[in-house]
Design goal:
By secondary structure, the protein is α/β, with parallel strands linked by helices. Helices cover about 25% and strands about 30% of the residues.
Length: about 250
């Protein structure tokens, strides 16, 4: 490619300091070094982790020095590769995995270690595939790989955003007999049903704690419960909504 081994000037959304809006401006992206890959980003999701890093790092959340380019779930095309790279070639479609904020996907181009890139099918829709890099993998994996949900079990998923809906899909794939979605946004009920939720509970519709509601609904508690919001105040509800020997995740 014409840009191979050259510095690329492109646009990126830069976080200059905590709590301030991102600034879209021109940046320079160096060529990839040994075992590195430079990717032209086609689509990037926005994760709650990005929001937390930007707006809460001054409140005790560990962070890297500012300025910084956020973003960590993306898909795009391999523009060029450094020496000794074997997993991908220029022109391949790639998805970033094993990622954290340092991959900087809020940029038109980014350079990442080779092990952060997974080659995907050339027909893959990049604006969909990018979500697999974080939110979908987190929720789906929590159900199948962490909890190891068993067929016929009863599950509760707290928070029906991207991670929560992915957890619902994982529970459904595992053969759960009941999947109870818990969310304070009533508008999420209909879309959650499409992903596999069999029952929906809005904590705001009940005068008692949501864990007590779940225990009553299930005659003793659910087998597996998933906290998919990132809210420490929900952890107690997730634990107490489980039956004896149930598994909160």
């Amino acid at each position: 490619m014409a840009t191979e081994n050259k510095v690329i000037r492109c646009k990126a959304a830069v976080a200059w300091e905590p709590g301030k809006p991102l600034s879209v401006e021109e940046v320079e992206v160096s060529p990839p070094k040994e075992h590195e890959v430079r990717i032209k980003i086609a689509a990037s999701g926005v994760c709650h982790t990005d929001w937390t890093y930007l707006y809460h790092c001054e409140k005790g959340v560990n962070s890297r020095p500012f300025p910084h380019i956020l973003g960590h779930e993306a898909a795009g095309m391999v523009e060029s590769i450094g020496s000794r790279v074997t997993a991908v070639q220029p022109g391949d479609k790639g998805q970033q995995v094993h990622q954290f904020i340092g991959v900087s996907t809020f940029s038109e181009y980014t350079v990442v270690p080779e092990y952060n890139v997974t080659k995907i099918h050339q027909d893959a829709l990049l604006d969909r595939v990018c979500l697999l890099g974080c939110g979908v993998a987190t929720g789906y994996g929590a159900a199948l790989n962490v909890a190891k949900v068993e067929r016929g079990s009863v599950c509760a998923v707290f928070g029906l955003g991207a991670v929560g809906l992915a957890a619902v899909m994982g529970c459904k794939a595992a053969g759960a007999s009941r999947i109870i979605g818990v969310d304070i946004n009533a508008e999420k009920h209909e879309i959650a049903k499409k992903f596999g939720v069999s029952e929906f509970v809005n904590p705001n519709d009940h005068s008692k704690p949501i864990q007590e509601v779940l225990v009553e609904m299930t005659s003793g508690g659910v087998d597996y419960s998933f906290e998919c919001v990132g809210n420490v105040t929900l952890i107690r509800a997730v634990f107490e909504g489980c039956r004896a020997r149930g598994e909160p995740v």
